[in-house]
Amino acid sequence: MASNEEHYTLPRPEFDTPVNILIVVAPYYKQIAEQLVAGAIAEIEAVGGFHEMIEVPGALEVPSAIGIAERMSNFDGYVGLGCVIRGETTHYDTVCNDSSRGLTLLGLQGLCIGNGILTVENYEQARVRAEAEGQNKGGGAAAAALHLIALARRWGGARKGVGFVPSRDEYQIAGASRGNDSA
């Protein structure tokens, strides 16, 4: 996105009950991460929401931390933040693709996630995109999570669980009483 292009931004969603969002940040490039976090926090607070923040070692750990948080806590949504700058090896491609894929897979399972992991060619590109008073990609990631939370609430709220869903006890009991124990 060129900085001189104009893009449409959805209006902020409104919430009757405040949202609670976990920000998961990989602060490998500390100054970039600080700007991303500042933008995300401002967006969450603009809708009257609450946030908690945790740090993970790198972008690859962001999806894992979100998956753990979803199973073991009670957040409405998540914002993944970090920065991956192209280096001399193919490690860049692995980190970019796998962190994005991890967040996408969690989102497809129903989690409300904003992906703010920058994938850039150099530090200057990251700086421009991260600036809270500039392109504000951290704020954009938070806005994405907020819009998904609004949709989830509109359609009946969150359903807990990531991954496989354990079988229900009543099915196991009913199946066993009919002699259907084919384990």
Q: H/E element string?
A: EHEHEHEHHH
Shape: globular
Query: Helix- and strand-based class?
Result: alpha/beta
**Integer count of domains:** 1
Low-confidence stretches: 170-178
Distance between the termini: 55 Å
Compute the number of strand runs: 4
Average pLDDT figure: 89
How helical, in percent, are the residues?
A: 40-55%
What is the name of the CATH superfamily? Lumazine/riboflavin synthase
Query: How many separate helices?
Result: 6
- What radius of gyration results from the CA coordinates? 19 Å
Identify the notable features of this structure and list them briefly.
183 residues; alpha/beta; four-stranded parallel β-sheet; 6 helices; 45% helix
Explained architecture:
With 183 residues, the protein is an alpha/beta fold. Helices cover 45% and strands 16% of the residues. It contains six helices and four strands; from the N terminus they run βαβαβαβααα. Strands 2-1-3-4 form a four-stranded parallel sheet, sandwiched between helices. The relative contact order is 0.19.
In brief:
The chain is built from six helices and four strands, in the order E-H-E-H-E-H-E-H-H-H.
Question: Which secondary structure elements does this structure contain, and how are they paired or packed?
Answer:
Elements: E1 20-25, H1 30-46, E2 50-55, H2 61-72, E3 77-85, H3 91-108, E4 113-120, H4 123-130, H5 137-154, H6 169-177
Parallel strand pairs: 1-2, 1-3, 3-4
Helix pairs in contact: 1-5, 2-3
